[in-house]
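Thread amino acids onto this structure.
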């Protein structure tokens, strides 16, 4: 995951500097009785977030002769003309299996690991402000359906606090590290009253987003995680104060003066182990977590806790 360097006696890992925090890493930690602890595996941790994401999938069957026409519980509309769909170059007819996932708030983003970090044309990464992230998929008898022309999506702005005139269309792909990254795609997001309207070019992840475009000087954020954990069974996120529809993984440099909540999570017997530190990012900021500072919560409880952050 990048390079290693030493800082304050800690082994810092990668450009976003996650390390294991040994017993000499105090950070105002009071002495407590040591209790038996079983380190979660990478598989247990990743499966926990995958289960949350799986639970958010809406699965229905549709007669494609009428077009792919769907409205989600939150009022998101998806439409594809039947002539836009094929399997191995042949037109699709009959019943298809349609899947749809919608994510609007940082509680859902964190528990499912569908975050808002985008890559600019320059290659620079920056956190995004989201108007909603959506996964759209269709199959027939287990075979993947292909799109030959764009689909239409309408997104209500109410779940994300109202219209933002700067929103753009993004597509998302999940990397080998399990994080999703968003890239601007061709097209525009149109606005009509309280709704966003746009086109998605293919099945997969689609987002209505904008870059934060924070022009303040930046600094590397260095994270020290408890010594019982590592980068395979842990993730650390940044929730921006005042931005309930944005959540970033720690990817590198962040603006100095940014008011944020740094959130450590792992797995504990099918639940989340977590800790939250609220701060204003300073130059060369170091944030240290210890296991004694963590709590346990179900996915539903953690979602509520994260969504309640200012």
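Threaded sequence (310 positions):
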């Amino acid at each position: 995951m990048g390079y290693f360097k030493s800082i304050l006696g800690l082994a810092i890992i990668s450009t976003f500097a996650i390390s294991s925090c040994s017993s000499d890493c105090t950070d105002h930690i009071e002495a407590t009785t040591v209790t038996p602890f079983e380190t979660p595996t990478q598989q247990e941790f990743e499966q926990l977030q995958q289960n949350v994401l799986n639970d958010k999938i809406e699965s229905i069957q549709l007669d494609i002769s009428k077009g792919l026409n769907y409205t989600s519980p939150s009022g998101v509309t998806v439409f594809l003309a039947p002539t836009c769909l094929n399997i191995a170059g042949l037109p699709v007819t009959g019943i298809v299996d349609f899947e749809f996932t919608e994510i609007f708030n940082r509680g859902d983003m964190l528990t499912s690991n569908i975050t808002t970090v985008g890559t600019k044309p320059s290659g620079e990464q920056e956190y995004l402000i989201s108007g909603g992230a959506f996964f759209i998929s269709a199959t027939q008898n287990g075979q993947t359906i292909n799109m030959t022309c764009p689909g239409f999506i309408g997104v209500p702005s109410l779940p994300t606090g109202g219209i933002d005139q700067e929103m753009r269309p993004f597509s998302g792909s999940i990397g080998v590290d399990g994080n999703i990254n968003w890239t601007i795609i061709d097209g525009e997001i149109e606005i009509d009253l309280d709704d966003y309207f746009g086109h998605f070019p293919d099945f997969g992840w689609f987002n209505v987003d904008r870059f934060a475009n924070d022009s303040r000087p930046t600094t590397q954020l260095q994270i020290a995680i408890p010594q019982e954990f590592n980068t395979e069974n842990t993730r650390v996120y940044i929730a921006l104060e005042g931005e309930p529809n944005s959540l970033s993984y720690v990817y590198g440099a962040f603006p100095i003066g940014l008011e944020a909540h740094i959130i450590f999570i792992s797995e504990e017997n099918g639940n989340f182990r977590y800790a939250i530190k609220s701060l204003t990012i300073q130059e060369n900021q170091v944030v240290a977590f210890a296991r004694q500072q963590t709590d346990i919560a179900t996915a539903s409880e953690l979602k509520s806790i994260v969504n309640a952050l200012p």
